[in-house]
Amino acid sequence: MADIRPAPPRDDRASSPADEHQRVADELAPMVEVWQRLLVEHVPDAAGRCRTCTKGGTGLPSMPWPCSIHGIADMARRVHDGDESAAVGPGRLSS
User: Fold this and answer.
1) How far apart, in whole angstroms, are the C-alpha atoms of residue 55 and residue 65?
2) How far apart are CA 11 and CA 1, in angstroms?
């Protein structure tokens, strides 16, 4: 006889990109060396693009700065530092 168990309750609310960024930043916050390195590496070039986020195979910057990686790393820094403004608001990060 087949073991039939009820499915767990489904959360139909899709999390927003901001919620996902906050979740990642919360996980990253105690990894100080990681978010510090991300902040150092994901910086703008003269054209306002992230130097690290390049178009695959070309080495050419393709993402506007601040990129989402920089934004998440900055959120992690603020969470680590106890900054209560670390929560993402609309428009705070690019996706």
Assistant:
1) 14
2) 30
pLDDT band (50, 70, 90) for residue 15: confident
**Whole-angstrom Cα distance, residue 59 to residue 52?**
9
Alpha-carbon distance values, 68 to 6, 7, 21, 31 (Å): 38, 35, 8, 18
Please give the distance of CA 17 from its chain centroid, rounded to a whole number. Answer: 9
Provide the whole-model pTM.
Answer: 0.72
**CA–CA distance, 79 with 41 (Å, rounded to integer):** 20
Residue 3: Cβ within 10 Å count: 4
